[in-house]
Amino acid sequence: ARRAGSEERDIPGDAAKEHVAGLGMKGASVSRARARARAVTDGCSPRVSGRVPRRRATATVVGKGGRSEDIMLRWIGLVPRATPGGEGSEKLKVYDIDPMLGKFEDHLEYRYRRYLEQLRAIEESDGSLEAFSSGYDRMGFFVEGGKLAYREWAPAAQQVQLIGDFNDWSGWDLEREAFGTWKLILGDEGESPVPHGSRGKVRIQTP
């Protein structure tokens, strides 16, 4: 049963074709895709219902070059489309799902641009959103390229140092990276200047 205030619409043919192509569903007809996949809106929380192929779930996680993110955004109505007579101007599809959002267009367009800027910065820094999300694997002491390294997250810091009994508590400076992290390579390949059981801490200078 549908909840009050919800609306069902068939997905347009072009979107169905894109979805079928994105999932690699060879031989599947667009008409069947349109019949099985409907965009359901409830207020301003769009979601997908109907007999959507299970492969869609894996296609919308993370893929090379951000392709899967594009598929996911297309379904929730966040991929820009050309406006009639706009000659290159773009508008979010979400306004077709919920016209009431039109009065917030300026703010939504701003937030979408900020999202794209952050996504590009993440891909330039870490290669992909998936690699960025697993950054916790590279915090603290870890091995990188056969060398011991140390990384700390301190976005507001002006200076970060690693100090301990292994350097007579004098402090080794970490280098600032993107997105608020600091990093230090310790020693040459196969060697570690920090013996097992050493005592140490991080010195952080803030404004």
Task: Describe what this molecule looks like in 3D.
- Pfam families: CBM_48 (PF02922).
- GO terms for molecular function: 1,4-alpha-glucan branching enzyme activity; hydrolase activity, hydrolyzing O-glycosyl compounds.
- The structure is a single chain.
- With 207 residues, the chain is an alpha+beta fold.
- The chain folds into two domains: 124 residues, no CATH class; 70 residues, Immunoglobulins (Immunoglobulin-like, Sandwich), CATH 2.60.40.10.
- Helix content is 30%, strand content 27%.
- A four-stranded antiparallel beta sheet has the order 6-7-11-10, with no helix packed on it. A three-stranded antiparallel beta sheet has the order 1-2-3.
- Strand 8 and strand 9 form a beta hairpin.
Key features of this structure:
three-stranded antiparallel beta sheet, elongated, disordered N terminus, four-stranded antiparallel beta sheet, 7 helices, 207 residues, alpha+beta, Immunoglobulin-like
The fraction of residues assigned to DSSP E strands is: 25-35%
Computed CA radius of gyration, to the nearest angstrom: 24 Å
Q: Output the strand order for the largest sheet.
A: 6-7-11-10
**Could you give the distance between the termini?**
57 Å
Largest sheet: 4 strands, antiparallel
Which series of helices and strands comes N to C?
EHHEEHHEEHHHEEEEEEE
Number of domains: 2
DSSP summary: helix tally:
7
Estimate the mean pLDDT confidence: 68
Helical fraction equals 25-40%
Tertiary shape = elongated
Number of E-type strands: 12
The stretches of 5 or more residues where confidence is low (pLDDT under 50) are 1-11, 15-64, 66-89
Structural class: alpha+beta
GO molecular function: 1,4-alpha-glucan branching enzyme activity; hydrolase activity, hydrolyzing O-glycosyl compounds
Protein name: Glycoside hydrolase family 13 N-terminal domain-containing protein
Biased composition (Basic and acidic residues): 1-20
Organism: Chloropicon primus
